[in-house]
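Hi R.,

Here's the chain you asked about this morning:
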Amino acid sequence: MFGKKFLVSLFLIACPFILDAQFLAFGYRSHFGGMGAYKNVVNFYNANRSWLDKEMNPSAHMVGFEVGFGGSRPKYGYTLGRFYAQFNKTTARGTNNNIAYKRSIKTKILGIEIIDAWYTPLHYKGFNFGLGLMPAGLGFMRVHTELNGEKKQIPLTDFYTDFLSSSHMYLNFHVDITKLTEKEHSWHLQVFNTLGPTKEYELLYLNREINPNSFDQIRQRTVMKINNRGMKLIFSY
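And the predicted structure, written out as tokens:
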């Protein structure tokens, strides 16, 4: 659909930005808050098993890493492509009718953020403060559960076999703090809010898998949007 001239022109336009920024960026990334339907399902699991010695943690806190291209200058910064991966695992244990049970749920979100930019006009003791926007991100969510060693991947929509059915588009608004080193490397702390206004995941399938005898009795919402908060600490060089 795009000819060679278009791709060459796009590359030439991007070159000055790539050369101006630090080349490689990597660091820590975390999501917290949001994912209310996930918490509803996990709490419902705990509430229906008084015999548990260890309950599942309903927190949706996910931690992981991020790598990509970009960096900061005193008054601005941007990235031109980043990949990230974040993970969460919670486990319940207990004995019922002389049978020991161990149930775990693993969630992960993989994502690609095409472009991100921030403006930091405020300066204090070597730190730069400002705001930014990441307007185009694509995430992929996966959920696995395991019962006494038997693993299963859980569908999140009615059309799970379709590649895009387990993906979501989103954007981030964020607050940014950066600091440059003497060698023009940079540290970047970003606190962001994710908005995914068009995509919802159905956690009915997760609820049905872990609560096979009571899943139809839940009274809380099982449809979940990826609207959460997060932070990352990135080093660019």
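The chain is about 15% helix and 55% strand.

Let me know if you need anything else.
M.
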